[in-house]
Amino acid sequence: MKKSVFLGLGVLCAAACFGCDGMIGGDFGGDGMVGGDFGADGMIGRDGGIDACEPGTVICVDGTVGSCSADGVAVPGEPCEFGCDDSQTVARCFSCQVDAQWCEGDDLLTCVSGYVSDASRETCPLGCLSNDGAHCRELGAHAVFSLGDFLADGTLAFSQEMQLGAGIHTIDTDEFTIDSVSWSDQAIVIQGQDAPDVAVFACANFHLVEGGTLRAIGSRPLAIVARDTLQVDGIIDVSARLTELGVGKYEDWSTPGPGGFSGGALGESGQGGCGGQPGETTTWGSGSGAGGFGGPGGRGANRTESPAHPYFFPGGPGGGVCGNASLIPLMGGSGGGGGEPTSQSPTGDAVHASSAGGGGGGAVLLAAGATVQISSTGGVSAAGGGGAVCANSGGAGGGAGGGILIEAPYVSLAGFVAANGGGGAEGDCT
């Protein structure tokens, strides 16, 4: 409405006096008012007029690198994908979006000032990935590792291939050997929190073929860490182990898997923070409790006798819960309680020795920078050991299952992953 009024006044004024003070009725606006179609304060009054420019200069025009014509008109030019920079004498296009990231070989670049030439550069020890937004390849966020320190000082090279064929293979977390051959790309991680240190076996890629079994021994939890892929078509076993095979039914499974805790010796509780406790030891007796870890261990069986010889002895308590879903720290299960060292029936039967509790299952971390794949023929086991079969007395408690942690940007699981607890031993067996 105001513009229509001003234009109308301009025409009337021109007709009366050919340009009154402060108004001009022609096409070009005067001070403070413009009589053209697009006039505004401080602007040229041509049809479609824009800001004045210095003829011959290279300037930003509507997101393009344009130019200024001889008569001072800005002319659009080359479009700029990331915007036009007019902070310098000659305008130019920005070459990247500020804060954008991209990979260049193993380096991660970040746009800082809008120009690729000024981008910050970070070398990724395990390589740079462009999928789902550029980022440095990582091996998982498990708190047990400070792998960045190992990578920075060259402790872990991730350069060897770990290929294991059919048959049984043994990996030792104390000696850092595979089938008695030293593995050079390795490190020890100190966890603290009264938890065992972790043995790290690093490689470029890991593959256990179908029909192959990798059995882990030693006191430390096992970590197999691959830079790229970790393929399991066979069985990785960190379960408690058979310590001794004796005469008849006697079998001692008190040796834990790597990172697990031993079963209790005769008449003693299982080792670890949640070891099972032994049964009644003063008489011929009750069963011992199982070790705990992710869940509580079961109580040992009570001992009762016939009406002719009435008595009751409660079973040993099972261990509590010591583990957590994050497996921080990385460790295995607690041991089961051992049977009583000697026992005698109230009826005067002979004294009998009993046996050790089952060892806890071990702990294993399988990590890869790209993919961990456990096929339908593969699996991972961290089973607890069963209580040792008794010698005509109360049975020993089973060891708790251990811990299995798998970390990678992509995990495919078609096989099995199991950390079952060991069973309690039979009592009164002859």
Notes on the protein architecture:
By secondary structure, the protein is mainly beta. It folds into three domains: 1-49, no CATH class; 101-136, no CATH class; 138-430, no CATH class. Helices cover 5% and strands 27% of the residues. The protein has two helices and 31 strands. It has a seven-stranded mixed sheet, with no helix packed on it. A five-stranded parallel sheet has the order 11-17-20-27-30, with no helix packed on it. Strands 15-16-19-26-29 form a five-stranded mixed sheet, with no helix packed on it. The termini are far apart.
Features:
430 residues, mainly beta, 3 domains, five-stranded parallel β-sheet, 27% strand
**What is the strand arrangement across the widest sheet?**
14-13-12-18-21-28-31
Q: Would you report the number of β strands?
A: 31
| Shape estimate | elongated
Which secondary-structure class do the elements indicate? mainly beta
Largest sheet: 7 strands, mixed
- Give the count of helical stretches: 2
Give the helix proportion (percent range): under 10%
What is the gyration radius calculated from CA atoms? Answer: 39 Å
Question: Termini, distance in Å?
Answer: 111 Å
Domain tally: 3
What's the topology here?
Layout: H1 2-17, E1 58-61, E2 64-68, E3 74-79, E4 84-85, E5 92-93, E6 101-104, E7 107-110, E8 120-123, E9 128-129, E10 135-136, H2 147-152, E11 161-164, E12 167-172, E13 177-178, E14 181-182, E15 186-189, E16 198-203, E17 205-208, E18 212-217, E19 222-226, E20 229-232, E21 235-237, E22 244-245, E23 251-252, E24 303-304, E25 312-313, E26 363-368, E27 371-374, E28 379-381, E29 403-407, E30 410-413, E31 416-418
